[in-house]
Write a structure and sequence with these properties.
- The chain is an alpha+beta fold.
- The protein contains 3 helices and 2 strands, in the order αββαα.
- The chain has a domain of 45 residues.
- It is 35% helix and 12% strand.
- The longest helix is centred in the N-terminal third of the chain and has 12 residues.
Length: 72
């Protein structure tokens, strides 16, 4: 185990103080063309599967799920 140097602690506290707007959680979207997206109600089951997340875990994490949506 190694100890953190002063610069390690400085980087850690700088990252911890950053506002959340820079690290927003992922949001479900519909791809509608080249570099275009529209907001969606929830993630599709195939998108969750691609991310390695099952339905139970998604509910525990508070991720919106739209079971009727077809993922791309």
């Amino acid at each position: 185990m190694t100890t953190w140097s002063k610069s390690d602690w400085k980087r850690f506290y700088e990252a911890a103080r950053r506002p959340w707007r820079h690290r927003r959680p992922p949001r479900p979207v519909y791809p509608t063309g080249l570099n275009r997206v529209l907001p969606a109600q929830g993630f599709s089951l195939s998108e969750l599967d691609d991310a390695g997340v099952n339905l139970e875990l998604a509910e525990r994490l508070g991720l919106p799920v739209d079971a009727g949506r077809i993922g791309t």
